[in-house]
Predict the 3D structure of the following.
Amino acid sequence: MIPTITAFERSPDRGQGLARDMRVRWALEEVGQPYAVRLVSFRAMKEPAHRALHPFGQIPTYEEGDLVLFESGAIVLHVAGRHTGLLPADPNARARAIAWMFAALNTVEPPILEREVARLVEGDQPWTAQRLSLVEDRIRQRLGELSDRLGDADWLDGGFSAGDLLMIHALQRLEGSGLLEEYPNLSAYVVRGEARPAFKRAFDAQLAVFTGQPRDE
């Protein structure tokens, strides 16, 4: 059965691969699972039909037969658990890979998203500069810890896993900020992830949605 995921009809990331359906696309491409995509407008995301799939009115969602999932991390974990390629077979290594999935979403990504809120939503506030400085210090702390752990390895724990997939996608939001570039091994880590054929296929599929839409400007 081919699963169906939802994605932005007009993504605010303008096809840069940052919207969270990218994570699910990438995971499905890594395991070789075909999938269908249903594009959803911002208005439709808040309507009852979509909220029945995602109670918070967001994307992505995942439908496979009677199964409906929301939250990108949960969907990636489901895909990784159902197919080979994203979680190790060894039980201990598998548990560690899942721990890195949680670390990406719960420890590394939150201050990165907080920085985006400070810049894009609160940028006109008189306290923004001070808040942004504090947030970036917290990001540097996490990046330093992650950099130390990664060292000169290619991936976080042995071979590429769903933990790397989610961590790399979280770090991508810092590309061009100057913060990621302070840690050359993390910059190289992200580049390695982006070089994977499955990532490129997922990125191209998401970009095609944006380029296929009329431009606002």
Observations:
- The domain at 91-196 is CATH 1.20.1050.10 (Glutathione S-transferase Yfyf (Class Pi); Chain A, domain 2).
